Amino acid sequence: MAYATTNPYTGEVLNVFPDATDSQVDQALDDAHNAFLLWKDTPLSQRKVILQRAADLLRERATDYARLLTLEMGKITAEGRAEVEISAGIFEYYANNMETLLAPEALSVAHPNEGKPTLVYEPLGIILAIEPWNFPIYQVARILAPQLAAGNTMLLKHASNVPQSAAAFDQLMLDAGLPDGAFRNLFATRQQVEKIINDPRVHGVALTGSEGAGAIIAAQASRALKKSTMELGGSDAFVVLADAELDKTVNWAVFGRHWNAGQVCVSSKRMIVVDEVYDAFLSRYIEGVAQLKAGDPFDPSTTLAPLSSQAAADEIRGKIREAVAHGATATEVGPKVPSQGAFVQPTILSNLTPDNPAYYWEFFGPVTMIFRAKNEEEAIQIANDSPYGLGGSVFTADPLHGAEVAKRISTGMVFVNHPTSPKADLPFGGIRRSGYGRELTDLGIKEFVNHKLICIVDIDAPFL
Ligand code: NAP
Q1: Residues sharing a CB contact under 8 Å with residue 131, sequence separation 6 or more, in sequence order
Q2: pTM to 2 decimal places
Q3: Ranges for the Aldehyde dehydrogenase domain (predicted)?
Q4: Where are the domains positioned within the chain?
Q5: What tens digit of pLDDT does each residue of 257-303 get?
Q6: Active site residues
Q7: Pairing between strand 449-456 and 116-123?
Q8: In the CATH scheme, what architecture does the domain 237-416 have?
Q9: Ligand 1 geometric centre to CA of 247 (Å)
Q10: Which of 130, 308, 434 for a ligand 1 pocket mutation test, highest count of atoms within 8 Å of Cβ?
């Protein structure tokens, strides 16, 4: 697929970039390996200075990066700035915490004859990151900061519709003082991606994206006996219990489903509302969604952005039609969205039953699936009836009870009284078809390291 910037609001093709040549890929592998040989022995005190500088530069250039996000995938400016800030926060988190996170760990053993065992965390080499377009800066920060902190180097294959955001990272890391080659963006083809995975100097693949891409890349990685992490799709439940404070809950529901034009893996995609408050919730939710203002994503008054491309908008309209053909009811909400730009009319899908294939789909746009649950028990049962297991949320006036319900929701992340929310200092990831592995915090930094045992045994007694 050609790498190109196409403004999703105007439809204008702003820039096209040629695919990487095979010799550029070979050079990037050589450079990343040579950089690794130096970077792995670079003291943490020096690595952290570079990560902090990257955080500072992201903040200094926030306006430029946010502009790129709007141009390339239609993000509204305020959300673009928030994305740059959380990305800076991730670099800063690892700058501040890498020494603690990577500190050797003494293990306790049952018998002194076993010696003194210690776990140390050593980098592996080059890691390949394959990233999606919905958070072009944050997704890269989420994998790059911990891997550099750990001492690995990285090659990036970003989504083909955000080439300028991808290229901006090359310059950012060079300006932050990272040795040349320790990070490089490549406009790689699928064949080149497979070649990179098979290169013996590459030791892992981290993919964020769709199930389809995840299945292909995970298979390529496993054939090459390389570790992978997969951050895939989701269909988060937004469970509303009878005692939920409705105004607050509805505000979060409208935001949780529509920020980033609904193109978030942890969007609140399935509203599951108990019978007592279903009607009141639905009427207020419709009012809230109707207040969203679709328009130019550069206009500060816009609150609903276009989708990332016309193809994405067409795809979601097709999925709505299919859901209806299988028995769902689609209700369009609010004033008509502009005819210019990749907009999709906010839509509520009701009467979805398990025999409708759409019941189990992810809608990556402003489409709300809503379910009436007889009671809390049934709400939990509907929440868990999904192939996905990424995030979820529970709304209730009793947060401790909310935490009990959260324990019964079968996903990687559950929030009480808030939509699932990415943060610089919280782990991120899911289960089932939402993938495996975790990004961020200590979990993310230890995905691609050698958890190496060093055991000092210096005793005369026989080893048992
Ligand atoms: P996608 O089509 O899977 O693309 C993601 C990345 O994979 C892109 O860089 C894409 O490159 C690349 N890719 C796709 N097929 C490939 C192949 N056969 N070989 C090599 N690279 C390949 O995903 P998307 O539709 O753009 O993104 C939306 C999906 O990502 C949703 O399902 C969303 O929920 C999920 N997501 C998950 C998380 C999470 O953290 N769990 C976060 C954000 C998004 P091209 O652009 O060149 O095709």
Answers
A1: 139, 140, 143, 156, 157, 158, 159, 207, 208, 209
A2: 0.97
A3: 3-453
A4: 3-233+425-454, 237-416
A5: 999 999 999 999 999 999 999 999 999 999 999 999 999 999 999 99
A6: 231, 265
A7: antiparallel
A8: 3-Layer(aba) Sandwich (3.40)
A9: 35
A10: 130
